[in-house]
Q: What sequence folds into this?
């Protein structure tokens, strides 16, 4: 791949699907060979291999990936009441990155991936107040198709020049400003990605990343908040559509809640060979400091038949330093 051009449409971002529509293409950079080993540096430009947007790496996170598709010799096949194997799943270290999404590409990926998915609890007393930093994302190492550009401001994002500065003597030539380091340090507890859970059922892979957001007091009780990011990927060529979600939410206080509904975040996404993935974020709150969630997504095939896809069980933990409230955009 090294040396081949990255072409963007003057209109609809970088999706190769747009190339057949007679749009005007312009060169935005030159591809580099993806890294098989080691991490990408702050300032690395990339195309997202699944969603096609232009982005830039801010900093890496080391996560533990719990992949239920990886079989182990002593796998315990027993089933629990939730319908999940109670096997022990070992976590493997995996690199993720905090990135900025190019604002020019946001409108063209919004049907497949939310561009305001990284949310914070507001500082004031309204326990339900959430706000988002637009164009902030988490990407896995294998999502990155690296490229380089001679443009000194290759990514359009309101935080680009606040966080990064051009330095032609460096590779990549975009260096973290002090403001980026301060922002990372200040918001570390609310940004940190630690556990990633993955499971595949009938060629539909579900990846879940939970994030602890903080605790708020409401009506003389403590309410603990988490957001969770979910990616659905169709690994087969058959077109399927998400129709229903079914969640079970267990709280350390002893409550078990069931949530059923149509689709997710008001959508019933179609996963096809051309657009195989959909990513969204949602939130959950408990009146206990920990709990766990699991469930299923119901999909429909073209012939009208349905099948259930397991959502891997994941813990909701709050063992973070609570002394500093999340500050989001402040530094």
A:
């Amino acid at each position: 791949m090294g040396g081949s051009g990255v072409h963007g449409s003057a209109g609809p971002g970088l999706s190769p699907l747009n190339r057949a529509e007679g749009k005007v293409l312009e060169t935005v950079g030159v591809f580099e060979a993806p890294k098989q080993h080691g991490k990408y540096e702050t300032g690395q430009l990339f195309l997202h291999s699944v969603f096609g947007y232009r982005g830039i790496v801010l900093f890496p996170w080391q996560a533990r990936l719990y992949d239920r598709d990886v079989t182990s010799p002593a796998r315990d096949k027993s089933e629990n009441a939730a319908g999940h194997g109670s096997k022990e799943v070992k976590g493997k270290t995996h690199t993720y990155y905090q990135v900025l999404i190019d604002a020019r590409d946001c409108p063209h990926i919004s049907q497949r991936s939310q561009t305001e998915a990284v949310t914070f609890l507001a500082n004031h007393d309204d326990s339900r107040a959430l706000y988002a930093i637009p164009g902030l994302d988490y990407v896995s190492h294998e999502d990155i198709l690296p490229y380089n550009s001679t443009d000194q401001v290759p990514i359009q994002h309101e935080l680009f020049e606040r966080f990064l500065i051009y330095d032609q003597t460096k590779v990549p030539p975009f260096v973290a400003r002090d403001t980026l380091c301060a922002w990372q340090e200040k918001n570390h507890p609310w940004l940190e990605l630690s556990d990633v859970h993955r499971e595949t059922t009938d060629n539909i892979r579900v990846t879940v990343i939970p994030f602890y957001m903080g605790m708020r007091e409401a009506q003389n009780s403590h309410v603990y908040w988490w957001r969770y990011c979910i990616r659905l990927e169709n690994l087969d060529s058959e077109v399927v559509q998400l129709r229903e979600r079914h969640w079970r939410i267990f709280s350390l206080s002893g409550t078990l809640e069931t949530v059923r509904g149509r689709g997710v975040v008001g959508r019933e996404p179609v996963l096809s060979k051309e657009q195989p993935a959909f990513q969204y974020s949602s939130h959950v709150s408990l009146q206990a400091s920990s709990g766990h969630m699991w469930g299923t997504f119901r999909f429909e095939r073209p012939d009208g038949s349905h099948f259930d896809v397991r959502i891997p069980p994941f813990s909701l933990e709050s063992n973070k330093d609570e002394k500093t409230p999340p500050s989001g955009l402040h530094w």
User: Anything to note?
Assistant: Confidence is low (pLDDT under 50) at residues 9-21, 73-84. The two ends are 39 Å apart (CA to CA). Residues 34-69+92-192 form one domain. DSSP finds three helices and 20 strands in the chain.
